[in-house]
Write a structure and sequence with these properties.
The structure is a single chain. This protein is α/β, with parallel strands linked by helices and 176 residues long. It has nine helices and five strands. It has a five-stranded parallel β-sheet with strand order 2-3-1-4-5. The chain is globular. It starts with a strand and ends in a 6-residue tail after the last helix. The relative contact order is 0.21. It binds shikimate-3-phosphate. Shikimate-3-phosphate binds next to α1 and α7.
Length: 176
């Protein structure tokens, strides 16, 4: 099986859906942010605080290269992974790209905790909803690279998994 790659904005459910989807498909779950944290030995917010975003993006690129060289994985990307066209090209070579979306209010609720998401925190000048809306608008087109898209706003993670599994079966990516 080629890889199944979940892309999408922060708080759209890539990690929780990815873990469940991997279980459903019987393959390994590969979370790029966790791989970066393991490689650096510190958390994502700490990486941003100590070394800055360019350093994080470079580590992210390495993590993409390593993941894309493998197959049969469910890969959860970070919300900004697709900002780099080379990352998208690598992931597309051997992967079905699935985009998870959600409304501004749902993303806001899921990313309310300050300190976990440095890119959103940096954008937040006091109106977090505005920060989510602005960043989402800025990035919207980046997620158009997906082969398939699911709006997770009103779905449970299991419902999202059912939807994606149905798509993968129809497309012959996954046959069981
Ligand atoms: C980022 C999203 C985060 C993480 C990092 C940068 C972004 O991942 O990769 O904080 O630029 O959108 P999640 O989408 O899992 O929150």
């Amino acid at each position: 099986m080629k890889n199944v790659v979940l892309i999408g904005f922060m708080g759209t459910g890539k990690t929780s859906v990815g873990r469940l989807l991997a279980g459903r498909l019987g393959c390994a779950f590969h979370d790029l942010d966790r791989k970066i944290e393991e490689a650096c030995g510190i958390s994502i917010p700490q990486i941003f605080a100590q070394y800055g975003e360019p350093y994080f993006r470079a580590r992210e690129k390495e993590a993409v290269r390593a993941a894309a060289a493998r197959s049969g994985l469910v890969i959860a990307t970070g919300g900004g992974t697709v900002k780099d066209a080379a990352n998208v090209a690598l992931l597309k070579e051997n992967g079905a790209i699935i985009c998870l979306t959600a409304s501004v209010d749902v993303v806001l609720a899921r990313t309310a905790h300050v300190g976990d998401r440095p890119v959103l925190d940096a954008k937040d000048a006091g109106d977090r909803r505005q920060a989510v809306a602005d960043l989402m608008a800025e990035r919207r087109e980046l997620y158009d690279v997906a082969d398939y898209s699911v709006d997770t706003s009103d779905l449970s993670p299991l419902q999202v998994v059912d939807d994606i599994a149905g798509y993968l079966k129809r497309e012959g990516v996954f046959r069981a």
